[in-house]
Specification:
CATH class of the largest domain: Alpha Beta
Number of domains: 3
Oligomer: single chain
Helix content: 25-40%
Radius of gyration: 22 Å
Distance between the termini: 49 Å
Length: 447
């Protein structure tokens, strides 16, 4: 087992890793930018090293600075948390080169899943369902029409160099194909200087469902069931829950086995998630793999009584996984509390927290790094806390979550708490009948 782990991250995830390390008898090293000198992860680690100024590029994304901090403190492993360098193949490779264990995927595994085309091809070869579509760029509109007829409408054409929704058109039937094709080519050519298009089956009324997996160095993989991450704004998750309201035991089994196949296909080591889109017909398709711990991992821990950070560390140290698949024994939900103003387009709201009271009680867990008097810097992600609630039913969890959110007092800044309280009262959300587009028509006024 490792003697000392450096945490190459900040905020609540750094604290989360420090807590597990302390329980395991492992010493910790915190790294911090000058903007984070008063952060709790700096205070609670056994050692702390300043790695640069506030900008991420010069601190938390600086591989030379982090490796130097590990060397001068004699750390034998680095936990990257999530974000920053957690899915950076070069960082994983350099850690190995310097004889420091990267607690996460290998550089090769990160590269496999980091390239979307390679990831899709790998999953397809492993027997994981992928969204049907063209193997590469379409040569002509006629080729597109033939393929669309084969896989069935609706379909979507996408710009190969696309981004921000540009160069994309949904096509519901063949009569719409020519115009959508022309419009997408014109838009992508003007926006990106590249008018190449590919085609995929359009996933109707999608839910974003992810399966938590853990793999060890002996080629074994298990899954810890699903999380529903469909409540999103601009592809940013705001609320996650497990089990999903739409996932039956049969679907859970099929998705879990598909996730295991996908992770095993690349010899995956560590904790990760296989992300799926599930359509209104109950069919699921591989979307991507996240080769790191997720922000929302605590809800899985609460319903399975399983410490995912401890498992990451054990696997990295060469120990085998528990070797079994887990299913939820309870219900759990997580609300991400961001320093943002939801009444004004979720505008960032950094500043000093003047008053703070965390909620408590049975079934309530708070993961946070903030305290009264703490100043939230404008340099990083706006998430300041996670409210994690568990209970015997989804209804109980929503009632408990609303109570916890109403009890959460934070003054001096704007937060997303009012949005989450309104969501808990929303009939559509309460029914479990929502998609990834749900918040596009949500009423944010007067929050």
């Amino acid at each position: 087992m490792f003697k000392k782990i450096l945490i190459a991250n900040r905020g609540e995830i750094a604290l989360r890793v420090i807590r597990t390390c302390r329980e395991m008898g492992i010493n910790t090293v915190a790294v911090y930018s000058t903007a984070d000198r008063d952060s709790l992860h700096v205070r609670f680690a056994d050692e702390a090293v300043c790695i640069g100024p506030p900008t991420s590029r010069q601190s938390y994304l600086s591989i030379p600075n982090i490796i130097s901090a590990a060397e001068i403190t004699n750390a034998d492993a680095i936990h990257p948390g999530y974000g920053f360098l957690s899915e950076n193949a070069e960082f994983s490779r350099i850690c190995a080169e310097y004889g420091i264990k990267f607690i996460g995927a290998t550089a090769e595994q990160i590269n496999y899943m980091g390239d979307k085309a390679t990831a899709k091809a790998t999953m397809k070869a492993a027997g994981v369902p992928v969204i049907p579509g063209s193997e590469g760029l379409l040569e002509s509109v006629e080729e597109g029409k033939i393929l669309a007829k084969e896989i069935g409408y609706p379909v979507i054409v996408k710009a190969t160099a696309g981004g921000g929704g540009r160069g994309m058109r949904i096509i519901k039937n063949e009569s719409e194909f020519q115009k959508a094709w022309d419009d997408a080519k014109m838009e992508s050519g003007a926006a990106f200087g590249n008018d190449g298009l590919y085609l995929e089956k359009f996933v109707e009324e999608p839910r974003h469902i992810e399966i938590q997996v853990v793999g060890d160095q002996f080629g074994r993989v298990c899954h810890l069931s699903e999380r529903d991450c469909s409540i999103q704004r601009r592809h940013q998750k705001l609320v996650e829950e497990t089990p999903s309201p739409i996932v039956s035991p049969e679907l859970r089994e099929r998705m879990g086995q598909a996730a295991i196949k996908g992770a095993a296909a690349i010899g995956y080591e560590g904790a990760g998630t296989i992300e799926f889109l599930v359509d209104k017909y109950g069919e699921f398709y591989f979307m991507e793999m996240n080769t790191r711990i997720q922000v929302e991992h605590p809800i899985t821990e609460e319903v399975t009584n399983f410490d995912l950070i401890k498992e990451q560390i054990k696997v990295a140290a060469g120990q085998p996984i528990s070797g079994q698949n887990y299913t939820p024994q309870l219900y759990a939900m997580e609300c991400r509390i961001n320093a943002e103003d939801p009444a004004n387009g979720f505008r960032p709201s950094p500043g000093k927290i003047t008053q703070l009271h965390f909620p408590g009680g049975h079934g309530v867990r708070i993961d946070s790094h903030v305290y009264a008097g703490y100043t939230i810097p404008p340099n990083y992600d706006s998430m300041i806390a996670k409210v994690i609630v568990s209970g015997q039913s989804r209804a109980e969890v929503m009632t408990r979550m609303k109570r916890a959110l109403q009890e959460f007092v934070i003054e001096g800044i704007k937060t997303t708490i009012p949005f989450h309280i309104r969501l808990m009262d929303d009939p559509g959300f309460q029914s479990g009948n929502f998609t990834t587009k749900y918040l596009e028509t949500f009423d944010f006024s007067g929050l």
